[in-house]
Amino acid sequence: MKHYPELLRFNFADRRLTWVGETIFGEKFPFQYASPDRPAIAIFNNQLWCVYRLGSDSNKLAYRFSSPQDVDGQWTTGQVIPDHTTVEGPALAVFKDRLYCVYVGTGGDNSLYSTYWSNLDSSWSDAKKLPHHHSTWGPALAVHDNKLWCVHTGNGRDQSLRYTTSSDGENWSDDTKFPDQKTASAPSLFVKGEDLFCAHRGGTGDEILYYTSWDGTTWRPDRRMLNNSIFSIESSHAPGVVYCADDRRLIMVLKGSGSDTQLYYGVLKDESENWVLDKISESFSQAGPSVLTTQNSTFCFYRGAKTSDE
Q1: Which tens digit of pLDDT belongs to each residue from 173-213?
Q2: SUPFAM superfamilies annotated for this entry (predicted)?
Q3: Sign of CA pseudo-dihedral 270, 239, 51, 155
C-alpha cells in the first residue's frame, strides 16, 4: 500500500517504552489527515486531541480527538477549524478549563493568533491576534506558575527566542527576549515539577539540541543535550520532551539531524545529564514530533517522511 509522506501518524509505548508500531491516519491521501509540519497534541476533556496544519497548500487548521485508551480505535473525523489558517505547526495547552491553540498567520502575516475550544459552545473561538507578537516558526505553549506561556522566535530573519505570558488566556504581556538563545525551527516547552524548560536546536548551521530553564526572573544559559555524557545530540528540529513524575524521568523523541528522518527516543533519569538514545523502529518524519504521557502510555504524533510501498 502506498503511504504519502504528509499523512499524520502516531506511535505509543508502555511504561517500559516498548513501542507498539506506527498507525497512519487514513488509508489513502485524504487532505484532512495530512500536514507538512509538526502536529500539536494535548489531553483535554479526558480525550486525546490533535490539532494540525492541513496539507495540499490549504494552510487551514484542523483537529480530531479520541479516547487515550482507544487511540487504535475510534477517532473523530478530521474537522477544519473555520477561519483559522497558518503556515507553521500550531501549539496546544490546557489552561483554565479551555484548550488553547496559538499559531502563526499566513500570507506574509507572521503575527501570532490564539483560539480556544469552548465546551459551552462545542466550538472554537474566533481568531484573536496577539497584540505585538510575531514569529517565523511555530510557537510552543505550556502552563507554569498559573500562567499560559508562549515561546517563539522573532520575525523574518530574527532567530532570537522570546516569550510572552497570559494570566487569563486573553491578554498577553509584551515580548521579552531570551538572554542569548537562538533557533532555526519551532521550539518546545515542557514542565518538570515546579520548573519550566525550553528545548530547541541552535540557529542556522547549528543543529545541536539545547535546553534552558526559567529561574523566576530570566532564562538560564543554554546547556547542550548529551548522549553517553560526551556527544552532543543533534536534530534539524526541536524534540518533543515530557516529564513522567511517576517514573521520575524525562522522555524525549526527536528526528535525526540533517536529512536523517529516523525518529529516536531517549530517557533521562532524575539527577542525570546523560540521555540514552535508541531508534523507534520503522518510524520516520521530516518534522519534529509531539509527545505526551498518560499514567500508562507515552504518545508520539508526527508527519511522515517518505513514500513507501507495503
Answers
A1: 999 999 999 999 999 999 999 999 999 999 999 999 999 99
A2: Fucose-specific lectin (SSF89372)
A3: positive
Backbone angles phi, psi at 298, to 5 degrees: -115, 125
Contacts of residue 125, defined as CB under 8 A and 6 or more positions apart, other chains included, come to 115, 116, 117, 118
CATH 2.120.10.10 fits 2-309, yes or no: yes
Taking the domains of the chain in order of start, what are their residue ranges?
2-309
The SS3 call for residue 70 is helix
Give the C-alpha distances (Å, rounded to integers) separating 12 from 73, 87, 147, 275.
13, 27, 29, 20
Task: Find where cell 495547552 sits.
Answer: 93
SS3 21: coil
Instruction: Count Cβ atoms below 10 Å from residue 15 Cβ, excluding itself.
Output: 13
Q: Alpha-carbon Rg of the chain, whole angstroms?
A: 18
In the three-class reduction of DSSP (H, G, I as helix; E, B as strand; rest coil), residue 215 is classed as coil
User: 309 - beta bridge partners?
Assistant: 2
Cell numbers linked to 1: 500500500
- 64-107 pLDDT, tens digit per residue, is 999 877 776 688 888 999 999 999 999 999 999 999 999 999 98
Residue 101 grid coordinates: 491553540
Burial of 151 (0-12, 13-18, 19+ CB in 10 A): buried
Taken in order 258, 263, 268, 274, is the CA torsion positive or negative? negative
Rounded Cα–Cα distance for residues 10 and 20 (Å): 10
* Count of Cβ atoms closer than 10 Å to residue 38 Cβ: 30
Contact 174, 132 (CB under 8 A): yes
